[in-house]
Every structure is written in C-alpha cells, then in structure tokens.
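Continuing from the previous page of notes. For each protein in this section, the sequence appears first, followed by its structure tokens. Read the first protein now.
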Amino acid sequence: MEPDGRGGPRALAVVVTGVPGAGKTTLASALAEKLGAVLLSLDTIKEE
C-alpha cells in the first residue's frame, strides 16, 4: 500500500474478468507477484 496524502495507507484492488481460458489467472498471478500483492481467486474459494 502507498500513502494516500493524508498519512494513511492507500489500498488498491484489481479485478480481472473474462471468458474461460483467456488467461485471467495467469495474468492475475503475475500481476500480484510484480506488485507484491495478495491474490484472491475464485478458483481457490470453495462454496459450500
């Protein structure tokens, strides 16, 4: 996170959408690694 100009951290959320097989997970994984961010993926979240 980066400062928001008021002394506090600024959060960033990136949402990647698209058709199946388009490479969303690959792109999101690379982007998260580059930014040092946490990747939350619906591929890994199981609904009960």
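Done with the first. The second protein uses the same format. Note its length before scrolling.
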Amino acid sequence: MEKVPDSWQKAQEVIWQTRPKRVLVLGGVDTGKSSFCFFVAERLLARGVPTALLDADIGQKDVGPPTTIGLRVLEPEDLSRSRPLPAEELYFVGSTTPVGHLLPLVVGTKLLAEKSRAPITLINTTGLIRGPGVALKTFQIESLAPDLIVAFEREKELSPILDGFRHLPVLRLPVPLEVQRKDFQERRKRRETAYRRYFEGGTILEFPLKTLIIQRPRKLVPHLLCGVSDGKRHLGLALLEQVTAEGLLLFTPVPREEIKILICGSMLVRLPGVELKKLTAGRPPSPSRKRHTLPAPPPGPGRKGLPKPKPARPRRGWRRNRAGVTGRSAPQKGAQNPAPAAGPPPGSRARRPPDR
C-alpha cells in the first residue's frame, strides 16, 4: 500500500498517546489487518516503543509457520524482511482454518498474550467473522480483555461481535480501497512457500512409541502434520513420515532432545510443503456407549425383598402355546364338539314356570 490512509494515521496516534498494552485487530478477509499492524509497529519502533506482534491468523502468516499462532517482539529490520518471520513463542492449532478449531485458537491466543513482555502487543486475528467466527471473536475478546479494539469494516459487519463490548474502547475504521484481494490459489501458494521455508534443514528422526506422549490423539497416518512440545511450550512442526511397529519417523527442524510430546493436527502435508487434505478436528476416544443395567437395590432395613410375582393363570378354555401367547384351545382331531346345553335361544328371556 503506497499511500497510508488518514484513518490509520489517526489510529496510530491514538495508540501512541494511550499506550494500550493489548491491541486486538479485527476484520474480515482482505481488510488490511496485517498491513495495519506493521504500519503501527513501524511508527512505534521509530519512537522507541518495543512492540510485539501476536499473529493469530493461522492461514496467512506473518509470524510463525501456518497452522500455528506466533509471537515475536519486532525489530526495525523485521519490517523489511520476507514473511512469515520466525516466532519466539508459538502455539500449534493444527489447521489453516478456524472452523472446528475454535477452542485451541482461543486458548493459544490467550497463552501467548500472557507471555508477551512488550509494552504494546498487536494481536492480529483470522478473517472469520460470520457464523462460528462470531463466537470465536467473542471468546477471544472475553479471554484477552484488550485495552483497545481496532475493527476494519465495510458495512458494519462486525456489529454482531462488537455490540456486546460497547464498554471497551473501539476504533472502527473503513477498509481502504487500496487493499488487494487474494484468491484461493494465491493463498495456498503462500502457505506452501511458508511450509517449504520452515522445513528447510529438517531431518528425519525415529521415536519409539513408548518414549512419546501423544496429545489430541487420532489415527496416525503418513503426511500427518503435527506439533511437537517439550512439555512446557510448543516448539514447532513435524511431519509424520512413517508409522512402524517400532515407532514413528518424524521430519522436523526441531532438535531431537527437546521433543517429548507429539500433538496431532488436522492436515496432511507432503514435503516440500504441498497441502494434501484437511481432516476433521481430532476427538479423544469416547467411552463405550453400551447400555448398562443398574443392579437391583438391596432390600431396605428391616424388611425382606419382595417376592417374585406369580405368572397369571390362563382362563378356562385358554391354553399357552410355545411362544408364550395364550389362545382358545382348538378341538382335538377326531373329537366331537359337545352338544350345547339346553336353554332359551340367545337374545330371548327365560319364562318363569307357572305356579302349581
């Protein structure tokens, strides 16, 4: 963007004067969020204010590899370097789409925001603002408690999110006309370039299954994109190359001695960085859904258990067949039906015999 909008100039002046510790930047896809963050960071660094960028956009990355949330305290030379920049701290989400991964996005953004020690932290977010994006941004605002929200809008599309936070300082900025829209292929190409740069210098490591802790378990298949951790923080990415009877083969730039935990993701990626397939979010194995009958309660104190009820005796002329169904007895073969008893015809009244 050659010309900086006047609204951006005014916004960065507000940030400079008020010094908010956490600035949450919201907006849809291709609204200028990343460019705004680097513009503000450039102005703050020029004035000697240390500034951190917390990149919670898991698809189009500025800090850290795709599928992660990245945190970095920016240096002046970072402003001219190719992106994504290396992350000083990261959190593995496991996918490039927020849908199906709202909880790790909220948790990861909160954890990294607490780790930031910079006076001002700019928090960039995903472009999902409708449907499940309303819940995502709402819970991110609640968990982060930002000191300032910068919202980029075209037609008040962020109102379902912001109306519930009118008590917080909010700067609503128009989307600049100069912002260029990126199509799906361009976005995918950028992600593949980021994967390729990240996995440069990686090696294949073999781990016995007994030595690794598996988190977010799912079926282990080749090309599964995973995160690795030392038990205290997430360290980076690893590609599952092969599953053997002895263990796993991982391709990762993370040193072997630091890896203790394998975190399963929701994507298949083939080297050097080709996205093969997005999987549904992994779910922990659920307990058996078989119905269990409750045991009969023991007899109460001072009383005996109730006796079992006796089966009802069928009425005369009825018999029980093998299936347990009662029915009127059929006449036996060769037997004659008994003659009906003498009496008045059906429907007539019996006459009283005369007195003698």
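What the second structure shows: The domain at 6-185 is CATH 3.40.50.300 (Rossmann fold). The chain has two domains: 6-185, 199-278. We return to this in next week's lecture.
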